[in-house]
Design brief:
The complex is a heterodimer of chains A (261) and B (281). Chain A has 261 residues and is mainly alpha-helical. Helix content of chain A is 51%, strand content 12%. In chain A, the strands form two sheets. In chain A, strands 2-3-4 form a three-stranded antiparallel beta sheet. In chain A, a hairpin with a 2-residue loop joins strand 3 and strand 4. In chain A, helix 1 packs across helix 2, helix 3 packs antiparallel against helix 6 and helix 5 runs antiparallel to helix 6. In chain A, 34% of the residues are buried. Classes of the chains: A mainly alpha (261), B alpha/beta (281).
Chain lengths: 261, 281
């Protein structure tokens, strides 16, 4: 007789091995008499559950790959990179890495070099949608900034929903065109694109930004103080002011405080 | 009636509904006439302060139960205390009248598959699960309810009936039972058991909540789909359970293809009428 650990190991193996072809055999008298039938039921439930979770997060990847191939990859992802996280809402966080790996080994994905970047973009949109950032209004933040005075201690707090993404393809355009029923024409030349994804006042937003803005937001996220930012932008004070003002008014910067407070 | 703890109890609550995204705004604004709401803990496990504050406000208008799906009580892996800490935070914020989890496992050996798998029903499992339920209750500082799950397989290592299995775990751990009447019906159909006998084997004093939901007929078995109205056979079994256990908070479960709020309220009214007729309220 198997112990509980052995039973659970066998059960998981029976689910995660074999093809995910939803088997619908007719059992003679209930599933208990047909082990493979039971495994097929659970395999189908598990596969469908995780496939639907990925579809919710990656709708444009789904369109780019097609239902059938997306399902095939989703099943391989589940088998190849099973998670130990009990929260299904976080499932698929490393799907972009999986797609990047698959793109390197599967010939049929050769024409979809931008797919891993599109998936990273979709994960950022998804995580932003699940965040409810607390952002203080522009006027209040400017007033707080003035009252803090000493720039050596001033530290900005980045919007927790914000993602900073660097792309080699025009990912935003690809995503915008492919989420609509009619796919427009996309020029797929390689470009360098900096994209910010964030949530503000209940809306998930995205914007392409220049290198200076992108780099400043990275520094803010790392907790760099205002005095250091001033040093980095030493001969371009007006540029720093422009970016900080834009970052505050856009909701990329959520708050400002004295360091250590 | 089973009381979950000293400070927060179910009183005479009758039928409640699950608080799901499509109905959230209407429930907050219209405050429909319903005894209580169920909140799935896993849907708000990472909730920010604004979301929790909204739910706390709603909590002033409705008693809530907190139901989770991710504890994997029957797993051989160690308990996930990061997850349990998140649940405890929600319990402290929402003060639910009941906290419940499934008598199942969802993963083991470092893999979590987000489904509710049945357990082999034997002494080893009773000892293992009861010990884990005790640890969870100690950590939460309150009792929990454990729910019977639907199943599509049996294990040759099982040596006891399902009602005996759940009753022994509840008795040994000091937990209560969340009796899912639909799951009793489904398992009885899938494995050729007597559903009424199952209900009759459960000690009434352990039952702290009941669940009702819709199933889906598949080839040779019924799937616990939660995507339709409750079957007539399940209403009938529920009537028998109410006659035996009295007024117990009863949830109308509907998690897929979620209909208009009125449909859920209509199902809740049906449950209330059964309670009224069986309990003479």
């Amino acid at each position: 007789m198997r112990d509980l650990a052995g039973i659970q190991k066998d059960f998981l193996n029976s689910i995660l091995t074999g093809d995910n072809k939803p088997a619908q055999p007719q059992p003679a008298s209930g599933p208990s008499e047909a082990g493979e039938f039971s495994a097929a039921i659970y395999r189908d439930l598990v596969a469908t559950n995780h496939l639907n979770a990925l579809k919710d997060v990656y709708p444009v990847c789904l369109r780019l790959l097609g239902e059938s191939y997306f399902s095939f990859l989703a099943w391989n992802y589940l088998k190849g990179r099973p998670t130990d996280d009990p929260d299904l809402n976080r499932y698929g966080h490393d799907f972009p890495g999986f797609l990047e790996h698959e793109a390197g080994v599967r010939e049929e994905l050769g024409g979809l070099g931008y797919l891993p970047e599109v998936s990273r973009y979709e994960w950022s949109l998804y995580t932003a949608s699940r965040t409810d950032p607390d952002i203080i209004p522009l006027e209040a933040m400017l007033s707080k900034l003035t009252s803090l005075g000493d720039e050596d201690t001033v530290i900005f707090r980045i919007n927790p929903s914000l993602s900073l993404l660097k792309f080699n393809y025009p990912v935003v355009r690809i995503w915008e065109e492919n989420r609509l029923p009619e796919v427009g024409e996309i020029v797929l030349e390689k470009v360098m694109e900096n994209v910010v994804v964030w949530k503000n006042e209940g809306d998930v937003l995205y914007e392409t930004v220049d290198d200076d803005t992108f780099n400043l937001l990275k520094l803010v996220r790392e907790g760099v103080r205002l005095s250091e930012l001033n040093n980095i932008f030493a001969d371009r004070g007006q540029e720093l002011e422009r970016i900080v003002t834009q970052s505050i008014s856009s909701g990329w910067i959520a708050d400002v405080n004295a360091a250590g407070s | 009636m089973f009381v979950t703890d000293g400070s927060s109890h179910a009183g005479n609550l009758r039928a409640g509904i699950g608080l799901r995204d499509p109905h959230l705004r209407r429930v907050i604004e219209d405050k429909p006439d319903i005894d209580w709401l169920e909140i799935i803990a896993d849907n708000i496990i990472d909730a920010d302060e604004p979301t929790l504050s909204r739910l706390e406000k709603l909590r002033r208008d409705y008693p809530v139960s907190l139901h989770s799906v991710g504890t994997s009580i029957g797993s051989v892996d160690p308990l996930n205390f990061d997850y349990l800490k998140s649940l405890k935070r929600l319990i402290e914020r929402l003060d639910p009248f009941s906290v419940s989890e499934h008598l199942c496992w969802s993963g083991a050996h470092g893999v979590h598959l987000h489904d509710l798998f049945p357990l082999p029903m034997n002494e080893e499992t009773v000892r293992h699960v009861a010990g884990r339920v005790e640890r969870i209750q100690d950590f939460f500082g309150r009792k929990i309810l454990i729910e019977n799950v639907s199943a599509y397989t049996e294990f040759e290592e099982s040596v006891m009936s399902e009602p005996e299995f759940i009753t022994r775990i509840a008795g040994r751990s000091g937990s209560g039972i969340l009796l899912d009447v639909n799951n009793i019906f489904i398992n009885s159909y899938n494995f050729g058991l007597d559903a009424v006998e199952y209900v009759d084997c459960i000690p009434g004093e352990l039952v702290g909540e009941m669940h009702l939901g819709g199933g889906e007929q598949r080839d040779g078995f019924i799937l616990d789909a939660h995507n339709c109205r409750i079957w007539d056979e399940v209403w009938h079994l529920y009537g028998h359970a109410v006659a035996r256990f009295g007024t117990v908070p009863t949830l109308i479960e509907w998690d897929n293809d979620i209909p208009e709020l009125e449909v859920l309220l209509d199902e809740a009214n049906k449950a209330n009428k059964i309670i009224e007729s069986k309990c003479g309220i």
